[in-house]
Design a protein that fits this description.
Helix content of chain B: 40-55%
Strand order of the largest sheet of chain B: 1-3-2
Number of strands of chain A: 17
CATH topology of chain B: Arc Repressor Mutant, subunit A
Shape of chain B: elongated
Radius of gyration of chain A: 37 Å
Strand content of chain B: 5-15%
Number of strands of chain B: 3
Structural class of chain A: alpha+beta
Largest sheet of chain B: 3 strands, antiparallel
Order of helices and strands of chain B: HEHHEEH
Distance between the termini of chain A: 91 Å
Distance between the termini of chain B: 32 Å
Oligomer: heterodimer
CATH superfamily of chain B: Winged helix-like DNA-binding domain superfamily/Winged helix DNA-binding domain
Strand content of chain A: 5-15%
Number of helices of chain A: 21
Strand order of the largest sheet of chain A: 3-4-9-6-8-7
Number of domains of chain A: 4
Radius of gyration of chain B: 16 Å
Largest sheet of chain A: 6 strands, mixed, barrel
CATH class of chain B: Mainly Alpha
Shape of chain A: elongated
Chain lengths: 726, 113
């Protein structure tokens, strides 16, 4: 094609677009111009005829006759400008007025349709909001995406090496890709507020974040009251201080305006409140109590570092790739000196959200796309239901539509009118659906928090509706209205002219065609199995709750007792005493209640509790049947058995003590566990987070660790209601 | 039988392009110009002129601009675009070929066969 021809083509395309744009957006001007131009033509012709001797009246009459019917020519002119189709599909207020009238006229259909579309839009919008908050965390303190974490993978255990205190100290000195580096650790402590309220809520365990003061520099959030933690607080001889989160300040301190300067007790230590952080501040994940991180590498042996998380802010201009390259070049600075060598370890720089939550998937991650497609299909299914209802209504209005068609309304015009009705339904459903998504999301977060702890979901997961979600809801509404409105309209308006003749002859009427049969069959195919799936799901839940666990779960309580180590890393006597007090409290009821310890440091086994309370390992006291071999015995805990587990029936594992989650803010943090204070719950069947069952191998934990243990109490009396043993 | 001839379908656009190519002109002027050039032999239904004008404008073959007419009234004047000029040339060529062919066919005698 020659260049001149291409130029012509482009010019003609541009002219067509300009003409359409004017017709669509400057319609009044176009109409006015047409009127004026045609009037001018008639006026000039009238003047010419008058020059030929006609009177004005005759000349005007002849000029009008020669011109023809002005409206017809204007209509033809509109069509020749490409506006004919636009006129057919153009929405008018009349369409929406008629649509609202129809909603009122058929209230039952309206309610059902709106509810159906609302459910679809709420599902779709809610899930999109969740995925977008996951895939694109909105961290106000990290607008430039420079916050990162350093994770060390252990190729041997296929896990993560978190004993990084010595590495952190070296990295902070050596690495140049970072503007700032910090370290944090989560511990559980009982918070005793020191005065009013302390008796009403004695020592409830809380997740406490031991954190570098640099975290507050990196996040740049000023304190709401008082101050944040500062570097001086990290000194070993500095007075103990604590920084409160907004929610904690409100919930536990009643929003006391004089809280700064108040002394509280965190575990075994008294600390002064130095400040309150603003609402919504939950760094690192969803925490609300911070104390300075004071552990020094010199305090602990190499390889016995506490599990910590290392985070930092990249230096201006430094990329994650550069930071990774620097880390690769320098390696794990003290890795080789680590017991077992450092060859199995590899460090990687990750985006901050990945450090404290989960890998951040791409927005178009296949899993997200598939689930979104599934939800879209669900929305379409809901809309197909509405389409059936609207089709039934349209069929009942066949006479009206035929007459409208006979009066000049084309098929497109009638389709637009029916689409407008679906659009009004969809618009109402969109508003309700967005509300549903917002509050449904809040409910979802509440359920997750109830199940997994208040700090499980990171603070950037918030029940809100972003612009993206609102736009998505609008798109869903348009698609839904298209399915619910246009499909029935296409069917109803097919062959309107012939149906006019049929109606005149007293016959005619609409019938289901192939498409509608397909829709109905698809709906039935999808909806019929749903009750079956629901039944299976409920049955499975019931089975989980009621299945035979090979012991009498009603007779058992579990108390999770964590003991706070002292600075030398030893389990203090006060901590052991707490366990002993639990055991001692049951001693008078030895006839009907017995307790034993599972996991943890087993302080009572060190001979601290004297005389030794009646004690049997849980398997023996539970009377569980063994699949093979024998149940655990007391001497297994002495270390002589080498920690071997005894096989038991599978179900027995469900009531096990379980271990402390190593996940930041995961189960075991918050109200369910606690150092220095027992929390009690009933053992029994429950699923793990992944939906599977907890490990079904039982063994005694090493007595050399200070991990929280669980005391299993068999109570043959009242069936054992959950209660605080202290 | 009158002296005026009916327009062949599709020829109105060609006539308008030709009339406009002779100089900027408003709608009524197009009509007068065609009648004047054809000596009144071609009669155009006046109202049909405007849909054709808008169609040509929509296709980018002519463009318009508001100005003042002889009677000092606001009038819309049309002019040929570059694409319209090229289109006119092609249409004229095509029409001439057709006219020649028609003339040859209609002027044929038994001796020529």
């Amino acid at each position: 094609m020659s260049p001149s021809r291409l130029t012509d083509l482009a010019a003609r395309l541009l002219a067509a677009l300009r003409s359409l744009w004017r017709g669509a957006f400057r319609r009044d001007q176009v109409e006015s111009d047409m009127r004026e131009e045609m009037a001018h033509h008639i006026e000039l012709r009238t003047a010419d005829l008058m020059k030929q001797g006609s009177s004005r009246k005759d000349a005007s009459r002849v000029a009008h006759m020669e011109f023809g019917h002005v409206e017809t020519h204007r209509d033809a002119a509109r069509r020749s400008r490409g506006l004919g189709f636009m006129d057919q599909i153009r929405f008018s207020w009349l369409d929406f007025k008629l649509a609202f009238r129809m909603l009122i006229r058929y209230p039952g259909l309206t309610v059902m349709s709106v509810l159906s579309m609302t459910a679809g839009i709420a599902f779709g919008a809610g899930f999109l909001e969740f995925t977008s908050q996951w895939a694109r965390p909105d961290l106000s303190f990290d607008a430039d995406h420079r916050m990162v974490g350093i994770v060390v993978d252990d190729a041997e255990s296929l896990g993560v090496e978190a004993r990084l205190l010595h590495d952190f100290a070296a990295w902070r000195e050596e690495l140049r890709s970072y503007e700032d580096l910090g370290v944090m650790r989560l511990v559980n402590r009982n918070l005793d507020m020191g005065r009013e309220g302390s008796e009403a809520d004695p020592g409830r365990p809380l997740s406490v974040t031991q954190i570098s003061a640099s975290a507050f520099r990196m996040t740049g959030a000023p304190a709401l009251m008082g101050r944040t933690l500062i570097a001086e607080d990290e000194q070993a001889d500095a007075p103990p201080v604590v920084l409160l989160g907004h929610d904690l300040w409100q919930d536990r301190f009643g929003g006391d305006p004089d809280v700064v300067g108040r002394t509280v007790r965190l575990g075994e230590e008294a600390a002064t409140v130095v400040g309150v952080m603003p609402e919504g501040y939950g760094f690192p994940r969803s925490q609300s109590l911070w104390v300075p991180f004071r552990r020094r590498p010199a305090d602990v042996q190499l390889g016995e570092s506490p599990a910590v998380y290392v985070f930092g802010r990249l230096a201006p201009g430094a990329s994650m790739e550069q930071a990774q390259a620097e880390l690769d070049t320098r390696g794990l600075l003290i890795a080789d000196a680590r017991p077992g060598g450092g060859e199995r370890l590899s460090a990687r720089v990750v985006p901050y959200p990945e450090l404290v939550y989960m890998p951040v998937p791409g927005f178009f991650d296949p899993a997200f796309v598939y689930v979104n497609l599934f939800i879209l299909a669900l929305v379409l299914l809901f809309c197909a239901n509405v389409a059936l209802l609207l089709f039934a209504r349209a069929a009942s209005r066949e006479g009206e539509l035929v007459v409208r068609n006979a009066l000049g309304a084309g098929r497109s015009r009638i389709i637009v009118q029916l689409f407008s009705e679906a659009l009004v339904l969809g618009g109402i459903a969109a508003v309700l659906g967005l509300f549903g998504a917002r509050y449904g999301y809040e409910w979802f977060l509440t359920v997750v928090e109830d199940a997994e702890g208040s700090s499980f979901m990171p603070f950037w997961f918030e029940p809100r509706i972003s612009t993206l979600t609102a736009v998505y809801a609008v798109c869903l509404t348009l698609v839904g209205a298209g399915v619910a409105g246009v499909l029935p309209a296409l069917k109803v308006t097919r062959g309107l002219a012939s149906r006019l003749r049929s109606q005149s002859a007293g016959g005619g009427g609409l019938g289901f065609g192939g498409v509608w049969t397909l829709i109905i069959v698809a709906q039935i195919a999808v909806t019929v199995p749903l009750p079956a799936f629901a039944f299976i799901a409920v049955n499975e839940m019931v089975t989980l709750d009621t299945s035979d666990v090979a012991f009498a779960p009603d007779e058992y309580l579990t108390a999770r007792i964590a003991v706070e180590r002292d600075r030398a890393g030893a389990v203090p006597r006060s901590g052991r005493d707490r366990r002993c007090r639990v055991r001692g409290a049951l001693r008078p009821h030895a006839g009907r209640a017995r307790a034993t310890s599972v996991g943890g440091d087993g302080g009572d086994r060190r001979g601290v509790c004297e005389p030794h309370p009646p004690d049997l390992p849980p398997l023996a006291s539970g009377g569980a049947r063994r699949a093979h071999g024998r149940a655990s015995r007391r001497r297994d805990a002495s270390g002589g058995s080498g920690g071997r587990g005894a096989p038991v029936p599978r179900d027995h594992g469900r009531g096990g003590a379980g271990g402390e989650s190593s996940r930041l803010g995961g189960r075991g943090v918050g109200g369910r566990g606690g150092r220095g204070g027992p929390s009690v719950r009933r053992p029994g069947p429950r699923r793990t987070k992944s939906g599977g069952r907890p490990p079904a191998v039982h063994g005694h934990r090493s007595q050399t660790t200070a991990r929280p243990g669980r005391t299993v109490v068999r109570d043959r009396g009242n069936g054992g209601e959950s209660r605080n043993l202290e | 039988m009158t002296d005026q001839a009916d327009l062949l379908p599709g020829t109105l656009d060609l006539l308008i392009l030709k009339a406009v190519s002779l100089g900027d002109v408003h709608g009524y002027g197009v009509l007068l110009r065609i009648e004047q050039i054809s000596g009144g032999a071609l009669e155009i239904q006046q109202g049909a002129l405007y849909p054709a004008l808008y169609r040509l404008e929509h296709r980018g073959l002519i463009e318009s601009e508001w100005g003042k007419s002889d009677n000092n009234r606001r009038a819309k004047f049309y002019r040929l675009t570059r694409a319209g000029r090229r289109e006119l040339g092609q249409e004229v060529e095509s029409w001439n070929r057709l006219a020649e062919a028609m003339a040859m066919v209609l002027g044929a005698t038994p001796q020529e066969i």
